[in-house]
Amino acid sequence: MRMIFCQKLNKEAEGLDFQIYPGDLGKKIYDHISKEAWAQWQSKQTMLINEHKLNMMNSEHRQLLEKNMVDFLFHNIDIHVEGFVPKNDDSK
Description:
This protein has 92 residues and is mainly alpha-helical. It has 3 helices and 2 strands; from the N terminus they run E-E-H-H-H. The protein has a two-stranded antiparallel ribbon.
């Protein structure tokens, strides 16, 4: 198991098994983002793609998604997805 200091979670955590994103940004993610933080991003990414009906063949859509990914993972900016309402646990 590869441990890293996760920049997103601000703690020591299990690192990714391999570089999952291409280029220098992929190396930065591999070196500084944990499996847990990457899973959080994947969930956000899915909501963004569905909500905005993004087409990954469209370079503008890929750039928008990459900008949101960098903001979420490295700048601690929470990505607001229109129409997404978090579950409210009213069981008391």
